[in-house]
Structures are given as structure tokens and as C-alpha cells.
Design goal:
With 219 residues, the chain is an all-alpha fold. It has a single domain, classed as Arp2/3 complex 21 kDa subunit ARPC3 (Orthogonal Bundle), CATH 1.10.1760. The protein contains 7 helices and 2 strands, in the order H-E-E-H-H-H-H-H-H. Strand 1 and strand 2 form a beta hairpin. The longest helix has 35 residues. It starts with 8 loop residues before the first helix and ends with a helix.
Length: 219
């Protein structure tokens, strides 16, 4: 024996089949999550109406994509979320985003898309980092899922403040809520809705992603 590892043709074929199956599964899963993201972003399916507020759940497929498929999945579904947000602004389906688009289209496009791309990317990075720690492995699904709507709110509202806080439209909202600075404006605007959206994504995305991983023995 000269120390060389010999792989026969049958083993090579098995490896190729496994890789092909993995690629097919990845494409199928990302396609499904992308479709869900677009459906939620463009239709009322992405909103849960309650007697007090409308809860957005578009961050759920973004979180699951980032957990299952890493930065690639997070960027794809996060980007889709951002594009639907921009479309809704251009089509007038979102009152606030439509008003901001009329003020500054380029800043609105940045606000709609870039935070969602970063949201998906960062959730993937957070999950991968936490999942490597044995004692945090189970919690990593829920922590990453919670981070998705939290990052969405922080990044999106940061862009609103950065680009539009001094605009007449936002200043009217500031005056109507009786606040005096950007931080209190964000808290007043997001309020309970942001908390409910965070909890919803935490429970649904965390449970689904962990459950699927366990059933399919993905990790």
C-alpha cells in the first residue's frame, strides 16, 4: 500500500447523485420560500389582521431561508421582501412608502431593499455562529428567528430617520404623536406592532425551522 486513497467508479457515482439530490432540494426549498415571500409581500396573506393592529409576517420565510440556506438564502428572500416593499410603494399600496417615494424615489428604493438584504444576511450569520455552540444549538433557531424582525425594524426605521426625518411628511407624523426626537418617533411608530411581529416570527419561524431540521436530520 502506498498510502493512496482509491475511489472506484461506483463511489464517485454515489457522491454525484448525493450532490445532485442536495442541489435539487436546495433549489426546491429556496424556490418555495421565495414564492411564499413574494406572495406574502404582494398580497394580504402576509398580514394578520387583529382587532387592534395588522401584524406583518413577511419576515418569517426570510428567517427560515436564512436558517436553512445561509447567507445565500437570506439574501434571496430578503431581496424579494425588499422588492415587494418597493413595488407596494410605487403602486401606492403602502400609504407611508408611497408618500416617501413621492419625496425621494432613490432613497425610498434604498430604504425598501437594502435593510431587507442585510436582514437576511445577518440572520444567516447569527444562526451559523450560534449553531456552532453546542449549548446554544437548540436556541439558535429561535434567537435567529427573533433577530429577523428586530433587524428589519432597526434597519428600516434607521433609513426612514436618515433620509426622511426632516421631511414635512415625517414631521407631521412626529407632531401628531407628540414626540420630540427620532428615537421616540420610532418607538411611537413601531410600538406594540413591532413587539407582536417579533414574537410571531420567533414562535413560527423558530418552531418550523427547528422541526424540519430534526425531521429531515439536516444537521
Amino acid at each position: 500500500m502506498d498510502g493512496k486513497v482509491i475511489i472506484n467508479e461506483e463511489e464517485i457515482n454515489e457522491i454525484m447523485k448525493a450532490n445532485k439530490a442536495f442541489d435539487t432540494r436546495t433549489i426546491a426549498e429556496l424556490g418555495m420560500l421565495l414564492g411564499i415571500t413574494l406572495l406574502m409581500g404582494l398580497t394580504p396573506v402576509g398580514t394578520i389582521p387583529t382587532p387592534f393592529l395588522n401584524v406583518s409576517i413577511v419576515t418569517i420565510p426570510v428567517a427560515i431561508a436564512a436558517i436553512f440556506h445561509g447567507p445565500k438564502g437570506g439574501l434571496i428572500c430578503g431581496g424579494a421582501f425588499g422588492l415587494t416593499s418597493l413595488y407596494n410603494a410605487m403602486a401606492g399600496k403602502s400609504v407611508m412608502m408611497a408618500a416617501l417615494f413621492a419625496i425621494n424615489p432613490l432613497a425610498t428604493a434604498f430604504t425598501a431593499i437594502v435593510p431587507r438584504l442585510l436582514e437576511g444576511l445577518l440572520v444567516a450569520i447569527i444562526f451559523n455562529a450560534l449553531h456552532r455552540v453546542k449549548r446554544l444549538r437548540s436556541a439558535s433557531y429561535y434567537i435567529a428567528s427573533l433577530c429577523c424582525p428586530v433587524l428589519n425594524t432597526i434597519l428600516f426605521m434607521s433609513c426612514i430617520v436618515m433620509f426622511f426625518y426632516n421631511s414635512d411628511y415625517i414631521q407631521e407624523m412626529v407632531a401628531a404623536r407628540g414626540v420630540s426626537n427620532p428615537f421616540s418617533f420610532v418607538v411611537a411608530l413601531v410600538g406594540i406592532q413591532g413587539v407582536v411581529e417579533a414574537i410571531t416570527c420567533l414562535v413560527i419561524a423558530g418552531t418550523v425551522s427547528q422541526g424540519v431540521d430534526r425531521v429531515l436530520h439536516r444537521r
